[in-house]
Amino acid sequence: QVRLVIAEKGLPCEERDVSMPLMEHKEPWFMRLNLGEEVPVIIHRDNIISDYNQIIDYMEKNFTGENVTQLIPEPGSLLHSRVLQYWELLDSLPMDAYTHGCILHPELTTDSMIPKYATAEIRRHLANASTELMKLDHEEEPQLSEPYLSKQKKLMAKILEHDNVNYLKKILGELGMVLDQIEAELEKRKLEYQGRSWAAFMGCFST
């Protein structure tokens, strides 16, 4: 979503990939930016923002002008209420479960692009979770130790919960129904706005 917003608005930026399978999100330099170890993170001037909804709001409010595309309709308009409706619907989906599940069980995906090392790395961490948590040592960054350990324990518990094929099949089926609903609504609005700009109906996540 964030990449789409940057592209649609035509904003220049420097991008750095952070490999989660290679545990780059656990390095001290990244944890100083975001103790939650989550991506994406955007840095603009003195502002560091890690929640993607907040990132989108920030870019929409701070990057404006005649040549900059407005992606979210004016508050109070019908289009704005539609954007919020579907934004909330998509936000309610268990995105972390899709991510963990499809890495742990690539057989559930079609034409999976997930590298085998990603699955092997996560399974290795699950197998050694207790030992690794006991050995974690951040002597060079003591202020990171407690939040790091807390986050790791929660993450391991969450991944174990998502390592369930029946649960994954259930939520992937539900995801398919939600996306079918959105596709049908987009087709309806495409006809309604034929000949006019209608992309704003779904805002940044439809372009």
TrEMBL record:
Task: Enumerate the Gene3D superfamilies for this protein.
Answer: Glutaredoxin
Q: Where is the GST N-terminal domain?
A: 1-67
Q: Which InterPro entries match?
A: Glutathione_S-Trfase_N (IPR004045), Thioredoxin-like_sf (IPR036249)
Annotated Pfam families: GST_N_2 (PF13409)
> Which residues constitute the signal peptide according to the record?
none
Q: Which SUPFAM superfamilies match?
A: Thioredoxin-like
Q: Which family does it belong to?
A: Belongs to the GST superfamily.
Q: What is this protein called?
A: Ganglioside-induced differentiation-associated protein 1-like 1
State the organism of origin. Answer: Phoenicopterus ruber ruber
